[in-house]
Write a sequence for this structure.
């Protein structure tokens, strides 16, 4: 049987579908940023940005860009009515202190125990940069990962043990990928959904780990 | 009469010593006190002051401001969370040539270590970074850890500044400050943590003009304010669409 990978937009829409009204959410840099474009209009979901804002709105029109109002990726954004500015310590208290309901992060690898590797490839000449990744990974009530399931070489990014440097231990709750959505449970990985035509057995074979129904 | 307003940037910066730790506010380009950084470069030029430690979230954008400060070769070490950006080429080459030491700190630990210094805390246990490469000292030895009620924590120490350079929006002669949008970021935290905090402001207002309910940094944390001409913040730190 054949199956088709979700596009990046479809994946972003899949993640957005699980975010309830009233949630305080941090969307990580990169692919997770696109989730904002798929949040249902009319629902109040409050986006947090680590550099000191709650109630982040969409990008402004080019003529309205204000580079004192940026997101974690340093790109101009807007503030919704009811939004607030605050300093770094308050911002990271929101993260580390368990006040955010959900954070969505990209990843290089996630282990079946929920260990996350997303900040450094470990290559000798790579300049390391961590930013807020480690605070986000362990701080939110739920950490979700959003990524392609396989590398370009076809290797699973969901692994038994991460080989890349870790960002946080046992912190990932859900893994949203272009092929399937997985839940990390104390008993191991559990399948939430998969693209049409991809069976649980075939998925487990791709990943190389057992996946429960 | 208290008057913390300095006549010029260079006057505010007098008394820098060799080996000083200098905190600079800002996240990306928002909140970077460019005029103070330029003044610092001017004051350093021709002085014997070297071996500086720079504390900033990033490590400079483009060739001006912090990047220009790094270029002077007077910064021995940088403590930051995110040095690598689309336009951090000055830092990148100094780092690759081993001309600058990097202490990489998760951003929330960076902020909390600075706060701890300002709040008189000796050290603190944080869950951030536990079990990672960043729970190690620069020499590779593990940092102290502790199990507290079943959760694992890493012991982190404060970062004290000799000088903090921050960017605010409005200030009065007592040093009370307000900020603008996300340019606030590290300003209020760094202001607490340095022996001498110098804030640039676009507007100096009479005492009592700032709403006491809305003052973000009370003047006790501020030693000098310098008025600078208003300029719009220029973006940086990300890949710009090719034009």
């Amino acid at each position: 049987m054949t199956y088709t990978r979700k596009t990046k937009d479809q994946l972003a829409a899949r993640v957005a579908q699980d975010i309830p009204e009233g949630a305080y959410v941090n969307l990580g840099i990169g692919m997770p940023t696109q989730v904002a474009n798929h949040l249902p209009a009319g629902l109040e979901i409050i986006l947090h940005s680590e550099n000191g804002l709650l109630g982040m709105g969409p990008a402004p029109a080019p003529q309205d860009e204000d580079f004192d109002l940026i997101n974690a990726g340093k790109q101009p954004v807007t503030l919704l009515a009811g939004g607030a500015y605050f300093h770094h310590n308050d911002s990271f208290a929101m993260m580390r202190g368990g006040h955010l309901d959900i954070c969505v992060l990209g990843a290089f690898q996630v282990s079946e125990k929920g260990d996350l590797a997303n900040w450094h490839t470990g290559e000798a000449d790579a300049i390391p940069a961590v930013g807020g990744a480690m605070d986000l990974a362990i701080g939110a009530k739920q950490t979700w990962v959003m990524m392609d399931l396989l590398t370009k070489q076809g290797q699973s990014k969901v692994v038994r043990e991460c080989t890349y440097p870790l960002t946080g231990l046992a912190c990932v709750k859900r893994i949203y990928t272009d092929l399937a959505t997985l839940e990390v449970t104390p008993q191991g990985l559990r399948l939430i959904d998969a693209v049409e035509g991809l069976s649980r057995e075939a998925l487990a074979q791709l990943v190389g780990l057992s996946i429960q129904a | 009469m208290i008057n913390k307003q300095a006549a010029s940037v260079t006057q505010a910066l007098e008394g820098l010593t060799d080996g000083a730790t200098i905190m600079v506010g800002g996240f990306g380009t928002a909140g970077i006190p460019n005029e103070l950084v330029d003044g610092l470069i001017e004051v350093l030029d021709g002085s014997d002051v070297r071996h500086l430690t720079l504390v900033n979230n990033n490590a400079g954008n483009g060739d001006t401001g912090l990047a220009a400060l790094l270029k002077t070769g007077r910064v021995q070490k940088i403590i930051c969370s995110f040095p690598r950006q689309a336009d951090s080429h000055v830092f990148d080459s100094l780092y690759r040539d081993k001309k600058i030491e990097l202490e990489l700190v998760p951003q929330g630990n960076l902020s909390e270590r600075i706060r701890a210094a300002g709040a008189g805390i000796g050290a603190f246990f944080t869950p951030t970074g536990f079990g990672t490469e960043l729970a190690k000292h620069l020499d590779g030895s593990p940092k102290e850890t502790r199990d507290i009620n079943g959760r694992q924590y890493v012991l982190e120490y404060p970062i004290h500044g000799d000088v903090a350079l921050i960017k605010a929006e409005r200030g009065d002669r007592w040093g009370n400050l307000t900020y603008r949008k996300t340019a606030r970021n590290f300003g209020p935290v760094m202001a607490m943590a340095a022996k001498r905090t110098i804030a640039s402001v676009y507007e100096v207002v009479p005492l009592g003009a700032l709403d006491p309910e809305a003052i973000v940094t009370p003047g006790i944390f501020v030693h000098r304010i310098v008025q600078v001409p208003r300029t719009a913040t220029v973006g940086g730190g990300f890949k710009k669409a090719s034009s």
Summary: Residues 108 and 128 of chain A are 14 Å apart (CA to CA). Helices of chain A lie at 8-17, 88-96, 133-139, 200-207.
